[in-house]
Structure formats: C-alpha cells, structure tokens
Amino acid sequence: MGRKLLWASLVLAPVTIAVRYAAHVGDVGLFVLSAAALVPLAWLIGEATEHAGDHTGPGIGGFLNASFGNAPELIIALFAVSDHLPEVVRGSLIGSVVSNLLLVLGLAVLAAPDERRTIDRKSLLAQLGLVLAATLLFFVPAVPGWHGNHERHSLAVATAPVAVALLVIYAGVTAWGLRRHRRRHRESGAEAQGAWSLPLTLAALGAATAVTAFISEILVHSLKTFAHDAHLSQFFVAIVIVAIVGNAAEHGGAVVLARRSGNLRLASEIAVSSSAQVAVLITPAVALLAWAVRPALPLTFRPVELAALGGATIVVALTLRDGRLARWEGAALVGLYVLAAVGFALAGDR
Questions:
Q1: What is the DSSP-derived secondary structure letter of residue 10?
Q2: Which CATH number characterizes residue 91's domain?
Q3: What percent of the chain has pLDDT above 90?
Q4: What does DSSP assign to residue 196?
Q5: Which residues are CB-contacts of 124 (< 8 A; sequence separation ≥ 6)?
Q6: How far is residue 185's CA from residue 152's CA, in Å, rounded to a whole number?
Q7: Tally: H helices and E strands in the chain
Q8: Half-sphere exposure of 310 (CA within 13 A, CB side)
Q9: What is the pTM of this model?
Q10: Burial call 290-302: b when 16+ CB within 10 Å, e when fewer
C-alpha cells in the first residue's frame, strides 16, 4: 500500500509545476506543495539507486545516487549566484555537507536493523579525507575575507586555484574508488536478482533528478516569503532549509534504503559520498562557473561554517573507526546536527 501511494504521489511534481506557471498561488502554498512533491521524487531516486546497486555494488551505487542527487544543489547554487545571493550559495553548500554527514547518516543508522550495521570503512574514510582536505583549502580565500569586504574581486581570484586543486583531487580519488568498487563487486560474484535493467535504472535516475531540479527551484524561490514570515535570518535559511531541500533526494533515498532493505552499507555510501561531492566537486564547480554566470563567487566562508564542516568530518570519522555503526551513534549524529542548527540560528547574518 505504501509503495502504491508513493507511485501515485509522483503526480504532485507536474501538479506543482503547473500551479507555479498556470495559477496564481502564493509562495506559502507553493512551498508546501513543492516540499510534498519532493518526497516521492526522493523515494524514486532511492528506489532506482537500489536497483543500480544490484548491478554495480554499493560503492558505485552510492556514487550514482550522490551524483544524481547533487544535481539540484548545483542548479540551485547557480540560480542564487545569478540572483546576487552569495551568502545563500555559500551557506547552502556548507549546510549540504554538514546535513549529509550528521543528519542523513544519523537517520540512516537509526533506521537500519540491528543485524546489518557493517559499512565499508575504507571507502567512507577516503571520502571523509576529501571533505577534510576541502575544509583546509577553504581557509585560503576565507581567512582574508574575515576582514574588510568579503566579496572583493581579489578573493574571487584567490578562490580559482583552490577550486581547480579540489577538482583535480576529486577526480583522482574518485577514479581510484570506482576501480576498487568495481573490482570488489566482480570478485563477490553477486548477480542482480529481480532488478530493473541498468538502462531503465539510469533513465529513471535522470528523469527524477531533472524534475527534482524544477521542484527545488520553485521551493527555493518560495522560501524567501517563508523566511520573512518566520522571521529567520538569510544565513539560517540557506545553511539549514535550502541545504536540506536541495538534498532531499539523498536524505530520503538513504533513509529508505536503510529502513526498507537494511542496506546500511549503501545508505552510508550515499550520505558520505554526497558530502564529499558537494565539498570537492559541486563547491569548486560553482565557484568556477560563477565567472560565466556573474558575479564571481569567492569562497569566503564564515568561521562558524568552517568549524561546523571540520567538526562534522572529524566526528563522523571517529564513529567509523570500528567498521560498524551502532544505533546510539546515529542518535548522537542527529543530536549534533540539531545543536549545529541552533548555532546557525544564533549566528545570524554576516
């Protein structure tokens, strides 16, 4: 019954798009409708990723989910750059990494059955190493931005080589990781049983991601009115609300996989791989593409943002040290995210 309801509720996506462009509905109504439409889309991406994992193994399956799921994040960020909202862009990118590491991974651990809690420790630690490397490199343009105008052109110029270095690092580590996952999947001899065909799976992922991008854009535009009515700072809206909305696919997909099939290995790959992709691929890509969209985007993150990023990375690395994730560790990760959100609310706008 639940699956039938989710399939039926996919109609909310075209209804939301039609209402946005053909009817005169207020922003609050659009916010509620688009948020509801993202739920079945997140489920569909999780469903398709599970079938992809049957063909490729959990490592590559997690990479595929992170890749398709992060497409809306890139699109949202570029729209915000063109709308001259740099604080929204930077906040949503950092918030995306932190929410995936703490909130998504924590919820997946809580949802997983007790008997299936093993993870691919080596793969996850490699991904966390990428996030930590990104955190350290972000200090190069960020520290000068703590004094004077943090949007000045010289800081955008200083951001460019950092962005290029991150992309090179990501390409190298990802190539190594995918070769390792492919070899392990072949050695395991596992075969897909009752799975969708790989072309159908990729087509479903692509279509769901494209529609998610449209819905996410509608939701983000309606967030301004929502934030004003709720008396929230722009920084909090970006780093918490926009970040969670932009990653609804990973959030829903990882938790559904952990809950329904007990596949915590794949769910953890989704959460951590998504964080690494945002930190080392999406963030530098946005910074470089901003030169074409204009204005250029310096990665002048605030101290509270870098502290949350580095702290979340270290905490998750410590929880992975024994190759298993206990339920209490999932609860602790979710609790830490709540504390981080409270800190973001207290920090206010720059």
A1: T
A2: 1.20.1420.30
A3: 37
A4: P
A5: 268, 269, 272, 320
A6: 48
A7: 17, 0
A8: 13
A9: 0.82
A10: beebeebbbbbbb
Rounded Cα distance between 101 and 62, Å, is: 14
Exposure of 26 by Cβ count < 10 A (0-12 exposed, 13-18 middle, 19+ buried)?
A: exposed
Two structure tokens written together for 75? 């699109």
- Digit-coded pLDDT (tens) for 92-115: 999 999 999 999 999 999 988 876
pLDDT digits (tens, 9 = 90+) for 71-97: 777 888 888 888 788 988 999 999 999
Higher pLDDT, 329 or 176: 329
Q: How many domains does the chain have?
A: 1
Question: Distance (Å, rounded) from C-alpha 38 to C-alpha 242?
Answer: 13
275 is written with which tokens? 């964080």
Which of 96, 66, 67, 74 has the alpha carbon at shortest distance from 290?
74
CA distance 208 to 205: 5
**217-251 pLDDT per residue, tens:** 888 788 778 778 878 888 998 899 888 877 766 67
**Across 80-221, where does the E strand assignment appear?**
none
User: From the CB of residue 21, how many other CB atoms can be counted at a distance below 10 Å?
Assistant: 8
301 phi/psi in degrees, rounded to 5: -70, 150
| pLDDT value, residue 183 | 62
Residue 162 C-beta-side C-alpha neighbours within 13 Å: 24
Give the mean pLDDT of the chain: 84
Calpha distance 1→304 (Å, rounded)? 44
Radius of gyration for the chain, computed over Cα atoms and rounded to the nearest angstrom = 19
Q: Please give the biggest Cα pair distance in the chain.
A: 60
Domain range for 40 is 2-187+195-347
Phi first, then psi: what are they for 324, rounded to 5°?
-135, 155
Whether 182 has a pLDDT exceeding 80, the answer reads: no
At residue 44's C-alpha, the angle toward residues 38 and 46, to 5°, is: 105
Tokens 């190069």 belong to which residue?
140
Determine if the peptide bond prior to 295 is cis (ω within 30°). yes
Three-point CA angle 37, 43, 44, nearest 5°: 95
Residues in the chain: 350
